[in-house]
Amino acid sequence: MDDFDVGARLRELRSIYGLTQRQLAEAADVPHGQISMIETNKSSPSVASLRKILGGIGIGMSEFFEPDEGESDKVFFAPSDLRDLTSRLYSERADLHGKVTLRQVGDARAHNLQILHETYEPGADTGEAMLEHAATEGGVVISGEIEVTVGAAVSILKAGDAYLFNSREPHRFRNIGDRPAVVISACTPPYL
Q1: Which keywords accompany this UniProt record (predicted)?
Q2: Which residue, 9, 117, 17, 139, is CA-closest to 61?
Q3: What structural domains does the chain harbor?
Q4: CB of 62 within 8 A of CB of 85?
Q5: 81: which of 23, 70, 104, 165 lies 20 to 30 Å off by Cα?
Q6: Which residues of the chain have pLDDT under 70?
Q7: What number of other Cβ atoms are within 10 A of residue 54's Cβ?
C-alpha cells in the first residue's frame, strides 16, 4: 500500500468542512492538541480515535481513505471485487491482536450501508480499547466461534448465531477458539 498521509488528509477534510482544529476537537470530543498532533504527523491515531474524530466531521473511514471510489452503480460482486480494508485497520490500530481480515462489498458510502466479510484468525482481538461509533451493526457467524462483548454483555457465538446492537455501546470481537471465525456483518451508517 502506498504511504497514506493521515495528517494531510485530516487537514484537507477539516478545511473542506470549514472547521478549525478546536471546532473539530469539540465536535469529536477529543483534546484540541490531538488534532494538531495528527495533522502534523507527530501522532498516529488508533482506529477508534480516528473514527471518533471523523464522526465529528460526519464521515466514515472508507470515505477518509478512498474518497473517490465509484462503485455505486455496481450490483453484483465476485470475491475478487470485495474491497480489502485490512491494511487500513492494521496501519491505524496498534492494539489489534492477531490477524483480522475485512473485505467490503461495494461503495458503502453511496448506499449508507457497509457490508463486510470478516475473518478472525485464532487469537485475533479488536483490542482492549473497545470500539464505539455512531451506527447500528449486526452480523451472522458463518463458521468458527467469536466472543462478542457489547457493554456488559458477553457471548460466544457459533456458526448460525447472530448479533445486532447500537454501536455507540462499547464493543469488542475476539476469536478465543482454535480455528478461524468468519462473520458477515452490516453497519449503517458505514464506519470503516
Answers
A1: DNA-binding
A2: 9
A3: 6-65 (1.10.260.40), 79-188 (2.60.120.10)
A4: yes
A5: 165
A6: 1-2, 66-72, 87-97
A7: 21
